[in-house]
Design brief:
Helix content is about 40%, strand content about 20%. It has five helices and eight strands.
Length: about 220
């Protein structure tokens, strides 16, 4: 895992260097441009960088944060059923079908669990989105965060409309699978992203499917 962290940092550093190098020609001819023309050119450069940054980071994550599954892949239907079986457990995690993908998240609007989340001082809701590519037996996983307000818990919980992408690298490869959930008491949950991410990702890999992390 340390190697992946280092490769990610190096790739991001090189990406920034690459962007700065594309600015070099503009700086060379700056003395021959009027302030208005230079300002427009700088603005266009900034817009192009802003538009390409997120896709570029997503490509970096896809290349570096790829994990091979172990053994013969299960049929997609069986894998999805194994993950959805989590909903039958007495745990603060649920998985729902949304637009041909599975979304794992906390049961923030459940009266029992929202009180636990208030006690744990949760201020952001973590979501793990899973998209399945049956042709390559690969699950594309992305991290999302959503604002949450527990002031009216347990009567009502307010959440933000948008779940914004943000990479979360808190993955423990060897410790948890979804089978571990059955042995956990409510008080053992600290509502960290890794408590959703690690068991699900490890379980997907153990069932023969690859996992590729992406920003989008």
């Amino acid at each position: 895992m340390i190697k992946r962290y280092l490769l990610t940092l190096i790739a991001l550093f090189l990406l920034v260097i690459g962007y700065l190098l594309t600015l070099l020609p503009l700086q060379i001819v700056r003395s021959h441009l009027s302030m208005a023309t230079y300002g427009k050119a700088l603005l266009i450069w900034g817009v192009l960088v802003a538009l390409s940054f997120v896709p570029a980071v997503s490509i970096i994550l896809k290349k570096i944060w790829f994990f091979h599954g172990k053994g013969t892949p299960l049929p997609a239907k069986e894998l999805r059923a194994a993950l959805l079986a989590i909903n039958e457990l007495n745990i603060p995690i649920r998985i729902t079908n949304k637009r041909k993908q599975l979304v794992a998240q906390w049961r923030y609007d459940d009266r029992k669990w929202c009180e636990y989340m208030v006690a744990a001082h949760v201020s952001r809701l973590y979501e793990l989105r899973l998209r399945f590519n049956e042709a390559t037996h690969t699950v594309h996983a992305s991290d999302r965060y959503r604002k949450v307000n527990f002031d009216l818990c347990p009567v009502r919980v307010k959440t933000g409309l948008l779940a914004l992408p943000r990479p979360c690298f808190g993955l423990q490869r060897k410790k948890y699978t979804i089978e571990h959930y059955g042995n956990m008491a409510p008080s053992e949950f600290s509502f960290r992203p890794a408590e959703i991410k690690s068991p699900l990702i490890n379980s997907i890999l153990a069932r023969g499917w690859n996992v590729r992390f992406t920003l989008l």
